[in-house]
Amino acid sequence: MEGAQIMKKRILALVLAAVMVPLISLTAEAAVTQNDAVKWLYAQENREECDIDGNGKWCVDLATAYMNYCYLKGRDKTSDPWKLNNPYTTYNANQYDNQFSGNPNWNVFSRTSSTVPQPGDIFVSERDTTGLGVGHVGVVLEAYGSTRAKIIQMSAGTNPTIISVTWGSDPSFYAEHFIRYNYFAEPTPTYASFDTNFYADGYSVENLEGIGTIQVYVDGKLQTYNEESSYTDFSQNVLVGKSYEVKVNITNPDYRYAGTDGATGGALTGTTLDGGTKVSIVICKDSGKTRQVPDGDYMIVSAEKPEFYLDIYGTKIPADSGANVQMCGPLAGDPSKYDALTLEYDNDGYYTISQTGSKEAGSRISLDLYGASKKQTANIRVYSDNGTDAQKWALVPQGDGYIIQ
Question: Which domains does the chain show, CATH number per domain?
Answer without folding.
Answer: 11-185 (3.90.1720.10), 191-285 (2.60.40), 296-404 (2.80.10.50)
